[in-house]
Design brief:
With 89 residues, the protein is of the alpha+beta class. It contains 2 helices and 7 strands; from the N terminus they run E-H-E-E-E-H-E-E-E. The strands form 2 sheets. The protein has a 4-stranded antiparallel β-sheet with strand order 2-3-1-5, covered by helices on one side. Helix 1 crosses helix 2. The model has no long low-confidence stretch (mean pLDDT 94).
Length: 89
């Protein structure tokens, strides 16, 4: 049985940087571009790293900033200052 975790963002400039960072840190993740939305899914675990996002943006980035662009999340959230992790445990 599949245990996909996912996160869906509004399709805007911030989300494009997020998608690029998430794809780099999770090469097994599947990115789906839909009208006005970008959904990223992976088997069991998806990690968003503050450091990778700061490299993409070229500035400091607070993990909480991401929530402005989030439409939906599937999975249990484990969050701290450096990571936002979705996983099924």
């Amino acid at each position: 049985m599949s245990q996909l975790v996912f996160i869906a963002f509004q399709d805007n400039d911030n989300a494009r940087y997020l998608v690029e960072a998430i794809a780099e840190d999770n090469p097994e993740a599947e990115v789906q571009h839909q009208p006005a939305m970008i959904r990223i899914q992976a088997e069991k675990r998806l990690v968003i790293n503050r450091e990778t996002m700061e490299e993409k943006l070229g500035r400091d980035w607070d993990v909480q900033e991401m929530l402005i662009d989030v439409i939906s999340i599937g999975g249990n959230v484990d969050e701290d200052d450096d990571h936002f992790i979705l996983q099924w445990t």
